[in-house]
């Protein structure tokens, strides 16, 4: 026993000595206090970096570092160089002096002031709100050097807030001139030679179905009935890779962004609008170049055969989801027979997918109705209906089919790597307490296999539909799930119940889809070459996706706070959506806007303790509980736009309050 412990200690000492000598790679997180922490793969504790040892690194940068001290649990290090900047554009204020100017960022994180030569201030005057770009920070420079890109006016408060959210998430507001030049040189005409290389399906009925405000139509469906009675259904995807040559400045910025970002009042596109909204968008009554998956499907929604390749299409009509839903429900409208047939096949495929282990979490999307200045004047709840599911099922089919096809391809007796979209099994640490909690509502889980867990989830979701506990069990169930990501190591997609899955159907807004298109074309033309950096690219795209989601959440939260400012002092019914040791969050039923009820505001009622296993706060004297999913009444007491934070106060109701939902105060017109 003693020898074993001694060996383990020696091994740990050797690992620490190797780490101390080697240069490591990680991401710098600077706290509000100014101290830095770098997370490094395979090292449990973050490495502490003092401000003097940042070596020109800023918050969010990917850096190379060396460990200098390893006493106790917390290791310390110094940054040797910056590998990649998270952010190069910043919002803040400019100070203009007689011979030079300084830029002070608005970031909550400590940031160095930037020096701006007077030739680079773009007519900005002292005190102006500006957006700047970091030009350089050379070894001998005490401060980074920047240039002004744009001057912002105070009247554009909402616009400034959205831009700051994008910048803080590492998304550039402007396309570099070099990239725009590449885009401008791309011809929008289709040559006879190019048409000759493709399957021509322009004479087959084809249409798009998209949100009402969409401008980039990246997928279309074609439909016809064959002589053998089968349906031929084509899933046609904008052929972005045809226009986006690998290695160009345009391709580099698309890869750097890796995704479009969708905020409540704007889209920050992955590609310039000339490409995303015009050149590649599958607009009606126009010939368009596409990459397609064309299926023969029988009446039982079984795929009999498929074809993958490049095509040219001509969309006959552009539908919105609302229009298609009306046709499905009323069984009347343009191309009603084709849409009804497609919907029936999609619903059959959906039913089979659920039976095969896919998990049917329902989804609600909150959207804000905005006025001409971008201020929210109403809230709309969008639910997934059959029109949405129609498109979803055929996109899933195309993605799965492409992944399955590519998984069988070998080059030099090796399976070719592709950017799979994977979703691992549920996190066991989160799953165990959830199962215990669900049991209190009468739901049991079979945990003998991943499939049985998925089946148990679906049984529970079906059982709670329409019941008071539906919201809480759905939300907590989602939190047990792993995060989906891109990787060349295929683990399957647990949530969808697919063994092979990739992203093929949205190349206008996702770079991994462009990567898949390129690999598929190489395979079809028998000219495949291994990409040694594929896993690195997958990791980058996953990180950019997470940053985009954070930006979208921050922007939605900003709109929530901006909207609820209209109701300060008023009270609403809500549902407890989260619990922690410092209070609980409540989402209003009418607006779906979330705020915090601080535990200090409850101190007059009782002394509350957080019971993690029960997802609740419990009073030590009264036994009063606040549990996730409980309905409560709250008063809106504060709405801080700068911090994107809302504070609510719990209202004692004695249980006799009328359940009337006609809350007159909420019905008043917002000015």
Features:
671 residues, alpha+beta, OB fold (Dihydrolipoamide Acetyltransferase, E2P), 5 domains, 7-stranded mixed β-sheet, 5-stranded mixed barrel, disordered C terminus
Please describe what this structure looks like.
The protein is an alpha+beta fold. It has five domains: 19-84, Nucleic acid-binding proteins (OB fold (Dihydrolipoamide Acetyltransferase, E2P), Beta Barrel); 89-152, Nucleic acid-binding proteins (OB fold (Dihydrolipoamide Acetyltransferase, E2P), Beta Barrel); 181-422 and 490-553, no CATH class; 428-481, no CATH class; 568-667, Nucleic acid-binding proteins (OB fold (Dihydrolipoamide Acetyltransferase, E2P)). Helices cover 30% and strands 29% of the residues. It contains 15 helices and 33 strands. Helix 9 (336-355) crosses helix 10 (386-407). It starts with a helix and ends in a 21-residue tail after the last strand. The relative contact order is 0.07. Mean pLDDT is 90; it is low at 654-671.
Structural class: alpha+beta
What would you report as the Rg, rounded to the nearest angstrom? Answer: 28 Å
Major β-sheet strand ordering: 11-18-17-14-13-12-19
What does the largest sheet look like? 7 strands, mixed
Distance between the termini: 76 Å
Unreliable stretches: 654-671
The amount of beta strand, in percent, is 25-35%
Give the quaternary arrangement of the chains: single chain
The beta-strand count equals 33
Which whole number gives the mean pLDDT?
90
